[in-house]
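#struct-queue
[09:14] JT: dropping the first one here, sequence first, then the structure tokens:
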Amino acid sequence: MVLQFKSGLKVLLLLSLSCASLCAGQSPQPTPSTASGTISGTVVDQSGAVVTGAAVKLTGADTDADKAQSPSQQVLTGDNGQFSFANVAPGAFQLTITSPGFAPQTSSGILAPGEVHLVPQIALAVASNVTDVQVALSPVEIAEAQIKDQEKQRILGVIPNFYVTYDPHPFSLTPKQKFELAWKTTIDPVTFVIVGGIAGVQQAENTFGGYGQGAQGYAKRYGASYADLAIGTFIGSAILPSVLKQDPRYFYKGSGSTRSRVLYAIANAVICKGDNGRWQVNYSNILGSLAAGGISNLYYPAQNRNGAALTFENAAIGIGATAAANLVEEFLMRKLTPNLPKHDQPTP
């Protein structure tokens, strides 16, 4: 009896030890209320295209189940626009998405214990105040843009006024740009009308009588007048300025006393700015006037050809006409030239 009792105690003891050993080998399972989860989603733009490299910041939840209340975690979207956060503790969370050129976007939700949470597709809107786009233009491109403005300058909206710049910071022209400006001046429709008027006055006054009268006389006067203008423009405003590196334009002053502006305008008939920005003798205009005067001897009537005298006379007339034109430009033409760009209008 005693033997049986002792045997029973041994069995109970062995069973107790087995249960204790079994329990000691098992770790406690987490309660459902603390199981971590996953948050993932996709970031796109308003067209539906994925946004790569967008920064996604997670706040409002513990981002690591093994750490105590980590404040935030951030990842970047991949090539497919997707992002993912693992080991996120359950509870309320907020996502903040930022990307250059887009307005910041937020998305919030609640993560259940052990949940794999898929955030609805997040669409970023283009920022309305993006102002950091910078485009660097070369000096040639800036000069070209300034020429385009000059080609819009027309006195009373009609007569070309291309060879004056009102821009306070003009860039020098390339030889190509000088020739283009001369070409556009000589082929402008208004130029042909003006030449026609000059030929008409000459016809009425019987200037260069050797040309005669009638249609034939008018045509010769018209051709001579147009040749004077074209030759003078190309030699004095394109060829020589390109060779001598001088700027053929008149640079509007628009400030200072009346006397200083008058002297400036007159002086610009014999001085000019070089392509280097420095003032120098206007050899282009002086030599251009002499060359145009000499060439005109080839097509004027024989009785009006006066050799060197006519050449220098025409050159002097050309220089004087330039001075007079500069005075008109300085004090009158800007007021009669509409639609000038605002930055091209210095205070007179």
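[09:21] JT: and here's the second one, same format:
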Amino acid sequence: MSLDGSREALEAIVQSEAGLVLSSLIASFGDFDLAEDAWQDAVAAALERWPRAGVPQRPAAWLTVAARRRAIDRLRHAAMHAGKAEALRADEELRRNEIATTEAGDDVTDERLRLLFTCCHPALAPEARVALTLRTLGGLSTEAVARAFLLPVATLAKRLERAKHKIRDARIPYRVPPPSDWAPRLGSVLAVVYLIFNEGYSAGEAEPAARHSLCEEAIRLARMLTALLPHEGEVHALLGLMLLQHARREARFADDGAFVPLDEQDRARWCRDELREGLEALRTAASRRERGPYQVQAAIAAAHAVAPSGAETPWHTIAALYAELELLAPSPVVRVNRTVAVGRAFGPEAGLALLAALEDDGAARLADYQPYHAARADLLRCAGRREEAAAAYRTAIDLCHGEPERRFLASRLAGLAAWIR
């Protein structure tokens, strides 16, 4: 295999397998920093070896074994500088882990659900729970997690370090807690699963295979949660929401890689099996007593899914659902999405009026939020305010993190340029 081909294979595997391997390492060694350092060592070793020897048949197992060995080497080196009693204890622990390392070649234990609940322990601050799980379970970079939170990278990095030290110092157990302890963690658990899905679903820089693997991992976790919590409507609603969105994956990009808006997609390319499963999960959620944010979001996705065509999208219904969602879970992200729906239902000036109110409340946070500028540009274009729209499109393009959306926005800007001339 060529070096370039091996690098591409490694990058895809790192994205899809990082959560699995890190979960196994954290379960074995109980140390987030050690696990991440050993994981990076294993990735470096793979990048050096795979171009010569080829990508192994079971790359996740290869990476797990390599990472375990690197972790053991690091611990043994540290033990050499400790006292004799500490060194003996470390050696016994290392011996047990060396046995686990040998066995890992045959079976990579899936510890992701345990890691999910550990990172969402109520002793951690809510925002730290989500950030830490995205970094470890989702295998996302610190930069990607910072984008999800609209935070500077340095701020997010400090938050992650505090969370890892809290787990270590408080000796938070690495396990799925008993059902009586699930309630305080469920909101964070669901938020993490959906953010992992969104990182894969976004038109970012990752290759399609890596994006899809993140989406499928989130859906897999949601299915596990529905089995653990069959009476929780929001768990079923989240599963339905992700299935309804993931069903559209084949229609979201044109042949040249450009992003295709939802109402312009070829619906014949949507996955009917996932649509049916998603709608069934939403019906299950609706049969439960509570109606939470995920059920409302799933209802929005369902409204798009059942519309015969983009032109027949029930925008008035969707705008009303977004208004309900904003009451349940107010945020700049929800408001931006609501402005789009309101603009389609009641005209672009109505959407711009909503957006102006949001600007007054949080202009600083929105300055680098790309979807805000893209939504504003589209509303301005539909309102005929072409020069303002062009400026907003340029800002949105500058803030893009992926080529598909950049191409789409550039085509919109090019269309405006012809009108302005």
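[09:30] RK: nice, looked through the second one.
[09:31] RK: The CA atoms of residues 315 and 353 lie 17 Å apart.
[09:31] JT: good to know. The first helix runs from residue 3 to 29.
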